[in-house]
Every structure is written in structure tokens, then in C-alpha cells.
Amino acid sequence: xxxxxxxxxxxxxxxxxxCAQWRVFPESAAEAFNLFILYFCLPAAVLRYGAKLxxxxxxxxxxxxxxALLVLSFGLILLLSRLFGWSRPVTAVLLLxxxxxxxxxxxxxxxxxxxGDEGLPYAVIYDQFGAFxxxxxxxxxxxxxxxxxxxxxxxxxxxxxxTFPPFIALVLALTVMPAQPHHTIETVLVRLSDALLPxxxxxxxxxxxxxxxREKLAPLALGLSLKLLLLPAxxxxxxxxAGMPPLPAQAVxxxxxxxxxxxxxxxxxxxxxxxxLAAAMVGYGLVISILTLPLWHLLLQGLPWAx
Length: 307
Description:
Layout: H1 2-22, H2 29-50, H3 57-84, H4 88-97, H5 107-115, H6 120-147, H7 154-162, H8 165-175, H9 183-194, H10 196-207, H11 217-242, H12 246-256, H13 262-270, H14 275-302
Helix pairs in contact: 1-10, 2-8, 2-9, 2-10, 3-4, 3-6, 3-11, 3-12, 4-6, 4-13, 4-14, 5-6, 5-12, 6-7, 6-12, 11-12, 11-14, 13-14
């Protein structure tokens, strides 16, 4: 199933790129696909698997990892920025694109493909209690600080979180959604959540840009190395030393190894903060992760806990 999922991702990415070049779809197609994923596919996946979550210390342990890695990556990027004399826009892009990964659009279906249905709830925890709140708080403050805009208020941040469709779905899943819903409801959720992987990959393919900004080669290479290699390695060390059970531990490492969150890059681009670098972090990150993610999966399966 893992090979099939990666083959499907590559196929849909290529098709999306070709459709963009040949202008098969309108320019707003990628946005329409993203909205459909945001309002239907992602909430369906959260409802489908979030209802199976049992609140406890395990959830807190999973949710703590992306926040801890955020602190480490923040300090490391600022240190590298001083060392290499990066500009403020370059620093801002890396502060956004390194800690924030594509933990929902690609993370959900890929974790499911690599670890099975039992691993997906932990991806939901990582994303909904980690990546998304980080984007809504830390991400907005980085944008405000480096773009010169007014800092967002607590009300604005809270409203963004509380009105985010997957977060609403998570609240429903943890409160009123039964673990075994009616067959009709289950069928609808299955169909919508199964559409997540091909639609997400197609939407990414429509938006992917692979033009290498030569003047930003060093920050691009370092940013991708941090995102795809160092942070997953730190996550692996963290869960190993903490003695986290195998399934959530593997889900945490794989979620950390996901390429840059497209939304984070889009926010940087929309604010005209090193747009070429932001686009390259997404484009090259996606291409390289097609190789690195299976390698991380193989490494995790080869560790003693997998036996």
C-alpha cells in the first residue's frame, strides 16, 4: 500500500504540473481544490479517525513534539541567519517553512499508507494540536514582525483556530461522534477522506514551482536539510529517549519529515517576503521528500520496536 500511495502522489503531482503548463484548468482551480479539501476531505478524515482517539498522556506527548521542535528550529535558524548574514526576508521564510510541515494534506494520507488506519489518529493529534496552532500563532507573529504589519490580537488568533473546519471536526470527533457511526455516515466519511490524497497531490502539482533561485541556493539547501533530515532525526531521538510506544512514535517522526506546509509558503509569498525562496522550499521539498519519506519509513521499520 505504501508503494501504491507514493506512486499515486508522484502521478498526481506530474499530472498537476502538466495541467498547469497546458492550462487545462482555470487559474483558480488549485484554490478550488484546496478549499474542497479544507472544508470536506480533511474534516471527514478527522471525524473518521479522531473519534477513535482516547484522551490521555499519550496525546500530550505527541502534541508536545512539534512545539519543542519549533523552539529548537527557531533558535537554530536565527543562529544560522547571523552566521551567514541572511536578509530579513530570507530569515522570515525559513522561520516559517522549516518548522511547519505539510502534516494534513500529505501527512494524513501518507501516515495512513505507511502505518495503517491505526497510525492516522496520531497524525491528527500532531497536526491539530501542533502544526495548525503553531501556524495560527507563531506563523502570524513572524509574518507581522518581518512584514511590518500590526501584530495579530489574541481574538484574531482564537477566532482563526475556532473557525478552522478540521479543528471543528476534531472537537466533534472528541465529543459527540461515535467511534462506530451509522453505516451511511461511515460510507460518506470514507469516500471523502479517501479523496484527500489524490486531490491534495493534484492541487500541489498545480501550484508547484521548481525554478531555483540561484542567489538563495545556500539558505534553500540548509532549509531543506533542516526540514527533511535534521528535524525528523531530532524527533526520532526525542520519542526514542521518551520511550514513546512504537505506533505514535513512528507517526510523530513521519509527520515531522513531511515537506514544507504549502499554506506557510503561500502566506510568505502573499506578503512578498522572499517569494522565490518560499516557492522553492515547497517545490523542491516535495520532490526530495518523495525520496526521503520512504527512507524514513524504512528506517523506522528497521528499528527494534518494529519487530
